[in-house]
């Protein structure tokens, strides 16, 4: 019986290389041999991440094979461009819009209606960091569209809502509908009560909630310290 290395069996090799894609260590495998090159390129095309900040006139990448898409620091990510992404990339499960601006409720509702298998969604810092204290994103993305994402994507495991107008109602929706959620970032989400977060954790003990601060409690503590002085 002829000996065959497992690294020469395409199906097994692709499964192994997927783990390297997660750690962003896949590029060196392109130079091993032709088989590894073919397997690696097919995986890389499913994980699209523009290098550095996206320029204003640069267009997002569209491909039906893409499953992971990151568009960060892009100030012209309009509803139209997101519509093109949704129509051209139907298999997205990982979507990262960190610090990208220009889209509204309509775009998120479209995402919710298309990507029912979405597992990762990052809406972090949608508002401009320099104007975060003077203008929140309520005129851009509202509770309605965020709730649509939560309601339509039950397989979500990672959510980043940093600097978003997250409310207690949204936290309640997450607690009831996102039973697979493992990570939730609530940095600078000022409108959430400690009771709502406690209920979320009690219903989903495996979730890790990062950067939650009870603003009311913090203000009370500061006032108490000031009065004692």
UniProtKB/TrEMBL annotation:
Gene Ontology BP term (one):
SCF-dependent proteasomal ubiquitin-dependent protein catabolic process
Q: Which residues form the F-box domain?
A: 11-48
Which Pfam families does this chain map to?
A: F-box-like, LRR_6
What InterPro entries does the database record attribute to this sequence? F-box_dom, Leu-rich_rpt, Leu-rich_rpt_Cys-con_subtyp, LRR_dom_sf
| Positions in coiled-coil regions | none
Q: Name one GO cellular component term.
A: SCF ubiquitin ligase complex
What PANTHER family does its record include?
A: F-BOX PROTEIN YLR352W, PARTNER OF PAIRED, ISOFORM B-RELATED
**What's the protein here called?**
F-box domain-containing protein
Q: Which organism is it from?
A: Rhizophagus irregularis
């Amino acid at each position: 019986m002829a000996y065959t290395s497992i690294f020469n069996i395409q199906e097994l090799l692709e499964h192994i290389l997927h783990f390297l894609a997660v750690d962003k260590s896949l590029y060196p495998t392109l130079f091993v041999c032709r088989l590894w090159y073919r397997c690696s390129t097919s995986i890389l095309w499913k994980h699209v991440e523009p290098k550095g900040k996206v320029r204003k006139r640069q267009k997002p990448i569209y491909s039906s094979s893409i499953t992971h898409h990151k568009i960060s620091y892009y100030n012209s990510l309009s509803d139209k461009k997101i519509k093109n992404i949704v129509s051209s990339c139907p298999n997205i499960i990982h979507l990262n819009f960190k610090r990208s601006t220009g889209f509204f409720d309509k775009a998120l509702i479209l995402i919710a209606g298309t990507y029912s298998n979405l597992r990762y969604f990052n809406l972090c810092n949608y508002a401009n960091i320099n104007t975060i204290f003077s203008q929140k994103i309520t005129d851009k993305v509202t509770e309605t569209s965020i709730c649509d994402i939560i309601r339509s994507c039950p397989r979500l495991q990672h959510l980043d809502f940093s600097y978003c107008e997250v409310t207690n109602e949204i936290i309640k929706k997450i607690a009831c509908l996102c039973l697979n959620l493992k990570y939730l970032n609530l940095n600078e989400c000022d409108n959430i009560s400690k009771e709502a977060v406690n209920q979320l954790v009690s219903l989903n003990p495996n979730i890790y909630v990062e950067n939650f601060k009870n603003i009311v409690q913090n203000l009370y503590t500061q006032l108490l310290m000031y009065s004692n002085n």
